[in-house]
Amino acid sequence: MLLQKEERSALNTVTRYGNNYIDVNDVRYDHAICFKPEGPITAWPVKTAADITTEMLELAAGITRKQANPLDFLNDASAPSYENPPDVLLIG
Prior knowledge:
The chain is mainly beta. The chain has one helix at 54-61; strands spanning 14-18, 21-24, 27-29, 33-34, 42-43.
């Protein structure tokens, strides 16, 4: 499906998509990719839903875990916290 052409800025823009492909900035990708509004478009090493792990989601979102505080167990902090969490992560 060709999306409406508009004047593009420097932001990464999905320009077309279909079964088994996506075009970003008029470049076709037939494999999983991850990208943000700005910056590089990188391959995402996921082939099936079973391949999606916490580490793969962290890679796709481009986030890094905060250094664990040795006293976190006192606050029952079992979930990781991140330096730069995204507002939204879309997978599709």
